[in-house]
TrEMBL record:
GO terms for MF: heme binding; lactoperoxidase activity; metal ion binding
Subcellular location: Secreted
CC cofactor: heme b; Ca(2+)
Protein name (record): Peroxidase
Organism: Fraxinus pennsylvanica
Function summary: Removal of H(2)O(2), oxidation of toxic reductants, biosynthesis and degradation of lignin, suberization, auxin catabolism, response to environmental stresses such as wounding, pathogen attack and oxidative stress. These functions might be dependent on each isozyme/isoform in each plant tissue.
Chain positions recorded as Ca(2+) 2 binding sites: T178, D231, T234, D239
Pfam families xref list: peroxidase (PF00141)
Record carries keyword Disulfide bond: yes
InterPro entries per the UniProt record, alphabetical: Haem_peroxidase, Haem_peroxidase_sf, Peroxidase_pln, Peroxidases_heam-ligand_BS, Secretory_peroxidase
Residues that bind heme b: H177
Main location: secreted
Binding of Ca(2+) 1, residues: D55, V58, G60, D62, S64, E73
Length: 312
């Protein structure tokens, strides 16, 4: 298990002791909410991590993804499959009882994503807090800012670069796919069955036997609710298995396979596959950078009373 202790104040203006006086048990309350929800639904950690990514990449880490309503980020089709909103709402309710008006939804989401990794066997990370909740959430801002599973490496790198994240961060944070699951439609264009039921591999970067297995799990006409584990071997553990699967061409998404098929990123994949400790150390640094994207401070945001709506 790894942890990192950084300076009292981060470059984003956040601090590691932000709630020490105003709500000293804030982080424990969030962790308890995540642990409780995960004990009854083991898919929760993967959902929390994905929710955090989708929040930070649009408007920054400001809980704008949590706002409900017409034309909000949450209403965009790309975000329809997001989950674990109830975990954030549950933590917020507890915090409003003990520390009313103090802890932001943005911090709750960041802490919950951090805890999701630790609870599934990943590194323990100390992250700074003090984020404010954003007031803007527009569906129109979603597509230009999030990664699609069919993206090339260049397309992904361009979006990451715009967020201040490097190619190394891209490979590292893709490791989030070591937990969680995906709907069939997010990868089903990589293979198909013809009218005679014959299997046809469209994307040659995907292992044929694995693709055939995916076809059985996602047959034509399958319910839109059917999901497949991102990592077929240890789907509930945050480990380096994702990178090992990439090496044998079992990356679920086209965007996963792209990491192995490009010389700029292939060696990083190899390093992470061979050394989980190195992956964890890299994850700590990249996650800290992710959690600081576009944070709101002071008058730039607010502390919402309810995470699903602004204060007024």
């Amino acid at each position: 298990m790894f942890s990192v202790v950084c300076f009292t104040r981060s470059s984003s203006g956040l601090s590691f002791d932000f709630y020490a006086v105003s709500c000293p048990s804030a982080e424990i309350m969030v962790k308890n909410s995540v642990r409780s929800a995960s004990s009854t639904d083991p898919t929760i950690p993967g959902k929390l991590l994905r929710l955090f990514f989708h929040d930070c990449f649009v408007e920054g880490c400001d809980a704008s993804i949590l706002l409900q309503g017409n034309d909000t980020e949450r209403s965009d089709p790309a975000n329809k499959s997001l989950g674990a909103f109830s975990v954030i709402d549950s933590a917020k309710r507890v915090l409003e009882i003990f520390c009313p008006g103090v802890v932001s939804c943005a911090d709750i989401l960041a802490l919950a994503a951090r805890d999701a990794v630790e609870l599934t066997g990943g590194p323990n990370i100390q992250i700074p807090t003090g984020r404010r909740d954003g007031r803007v959430s527009l569906a129109a801002n979603v597509r230009p800012n999030i990664i699609d599973t069919s993206f090339t490496l260049n397309q992904m790198a361009n979006i990451f670069s715009a967020k201040g994240l490097s190619m190394d961060d891209l490979v590292t944070l893709s490791g989030a796919h070591t937990i969680g699951s995906a709907h069939c439609r997010s990868f089903s264009d990589r293979f198909k069955l013809d009218s005679n039921g014959k299997f046809n591999l469209i994307d040659s970067s995907l292992d044929k036997e694995y693709a055939a297995e995916l076809t059985r799990m996602c047959p034509a006409g399958a319910s839109a609710s059917v999901t497949v584990n991102n990592d077929p071997n240890t789907p509930l553990l945050f480990d380096n298995e994702y990178y090992k699967e990439l090496l044998v061409h079992k990356g679920l998404f086209q965007s996963d396979s792209a990491l192995l098929n490009d010389e700029r990123t292939k060696n990083i994949v190899l390093d992470f596959a061979n050394n989980q400790e190195f992956f964890f150390e890299s994850w700590i640094q990249s996650f800290l950078k992710l959690s600081s994207i576009g944070v709101k401070r002071n008058d730039e945001g607010e502390i919402r009373q309810l995470c699903s709506m602004t204060n007024g």
